[in-house]
TrEMBL record:
The chain crosses the membrane at residues 56-78, 90-113. It is found in: Cell membrane. It comes from Myceligenerans crystallogenes. This is Cytochrome bc1 complex Rieske iron-sulfur subunit. Residues 244-337 form the Rieske domain.
Length: 355
């Protein structure tokens, strides 16, 4: 019995021998390839090439500076004037300036690293926590050599100046618009009321064509704005007033509506047609994704979901309040009209809610 147990026990000598053999086999099969031989770049052996690459990097930084200055000029010279065309032009010029500034810095940094900085691979072996004085001195020397090769200090003063200028000017592309907006209109009480008034017709966004009941089929959804004159839609006020008054209107079967009345019992829908503010009550993103089968409205920013069939109550997501409902009816000509403004202020819940 003891002989069998002895035979079944693994031999420590055999284990050691097997482990050593395996390690030797691994070493024989996988050898350390070491660091490949350095292949010099053209800029390393040709001073003209190095100078040419330096000029390229300098001009890229100069381009970045011009882009930053251009964005500031665009912000001051072409401010958004309230019209769609004006806002589009201002945003385009400001965005182009920021893009040129940032791309100039990024491409210049890449070109600098690839063509001018040292690319020799170095290996540093593992060592105790504190290196010897000789190793520490060598490390300091390597750092100084790296700084010298990168051109950050010492030589290439023009390149250094261009880089510093580009990095110093780029923050202006963000700081100037932010500072300029500090003195803006922060009167959030303006969101307590919109353009909707009793008798205002519902119109299709963006054409402004009034909507008849016969135009709205069951399951359809309309992006709605108040009916106004074409002249007003070209005015400076329109884009601001429209942003507060935008509505999403859908038509359900009347029996699918769980609630279509105000707290006072007034009828706020017409033959299954309901209208709600498109401004999410979470942070104000446009709620415009309608799922016909579930009657859910989805906010694409943070996935707040509202039930159209039940007074746009929140069924999922971070929003805390239902979407404000626009009370609607129909006039004598068959057009859908508002009964009045929203019953409560539109927009996120963190704003003041006093009526």
């Amino acid at each position: 019995m003891s002989d069998k147990n002895h035979l079944n026990e693994p031999s420590s000598e055999l284990t050691t021998h097997t482990g050593a053999s395996t390690e030797l086999a691994v070493q024989d099969k996988f050898t350390d390839p070491g660091v490949p031989a350095h292949r010099p770049r053209l800029a390393d052996i040709d001073p003209k090439s190095a100078k040419r690459n330096e000029r390229i990097v300098i001009w890229l930084f100069v381009l970045s500076c011009l882009g930053a200055i251009g964005s500031v000029v665009a912000y001051v010279a072409v401010p958004p004037d309230g019209t769609t065309e004006g806002v589009r032009t201002s945003t385009l010029l400001l965005g182009l300036g920021i893009a040129v500034s940032l791309l100039g810095i990024g491409i210049a940094g890449i070109q600098w690293a690839k063509a001018l900085m040292a690319d020799t691979e170095m290996v540093q072996e593992r060592h105790p926590i504190r290196s010897s004085d000789e190793v520490r001195a060598d490390a300091v020397k390597d750092l100084n050599d790296g700084l010298e090769d990168s051109g950050v200090v010492g030589r290439r003063g023009l390149l250094k100046g261009a880089a510093v200028s580009a990095l110093a000017l780029f923050p202006l592309t963000i700081a100037v618009p932010l500072i300029g907006s500090v003195g803006g209109d922060w009167n959030v009480s303006k969101f307590k009321h919109t353009m909707w008034k009793k008798g205002t017709r519902l119109a299709i966004d963006p054409s402004g064509r009034p909507i008849k009941v016969s135009d709205v089929n069951i399951g359809s959804a309309f992006h709605v704005i108040p009916e106004t004159s074409e002249e007003y839609r070209e005015s400076h006020e329109w884009i601001t007033e429209k942003s507060k008054a935008v509505v999403l209107m859908v038509r359900l079967r009347p029996e699918e509506l769980k609630s279509d009345q105000s707290p006072e019992g007034e009828q706020w829908s017409h033959e299954g047609i309901v209208a709600y503010s498109k401004i999410c009550t979470h942070v104000g993103c446009p709620v415009a994704l309608y799922e016909q089968q579930t009657h859910h409205l989805l906010c694409p920013c943070h996935q707040s979901t509202f039930d159209v069939a039940d007074s746009a109550k929140v069924v999922f997501g971070p929003a805390k309040r239902p979407l404000p409902q626009l009370p609607i009816t129909v006039d004598d000509e068959g057009y859908l009209v508002a009964q009045g403004d929203f019953a409560e202020p539109i927009g996120p819940s963190f704003w003041e809610r006093l009526k």
